[in-house]
Design brief:
Shape: elongated
Number of helices: 4
Order of helices and strands: HHHH
Strand content: under 5%
Radius of gyration: 16 Å
Bound molecules: fe (ii) ion
Length: 110
């Protein structure tokens, strides 16, 4: 659980650096999503340290924390990947900023 938290934080920080480097148009929103997730993760981690792997913990972990990160990767991170690839190929900020629709995805649970 602890290693997962370290990995997530490091991965989010790397992603945010990449977004800053390319002046990613959804940077503020994407960073806020990471922050919300880390807060939810830390709350769950505290619960785990206090009560161990209870049934509630397992349910929250699978239904919220894992589901959220899967949706985040499928939408927000895919958009980021498309944007970065487009920028590296075309260097056309206007073109690459089009069609980034992950901001419309409503994330729940985390
Ligand atoms: Fe992300």
């Amino acid at each position: 659980m602890h290693l997962l938290g370290d990995y997530i934080k490091e991965h989010f920080a790397d992603e945010e650096k990449l977004q800053q480097k390319h002046n990613y148009p959804l940077y503020d929103w994407h960073k806020r999503q990471h922050k919300i997730y880390i807060q939810a993760y830390e709350k769950l981690h505290k619960e785990y340290m206090k009560n161990g792997p209870s049934q509630d913990f397992t349910l929250h972990l699978t239904q919220n924390i894992i589901d959220w990160i899967v949706k985040h990767i499928q939408h927000a991170d895919v958009d980021l990947g498309k944007f970065v690839n487009c920028m590296e190929e075309s260097h056309n900020y206007e073109l690459c900023s089009q069609g980034l629709d992950s901001i419309q995805i409503v994330y729940t649970g985390a």
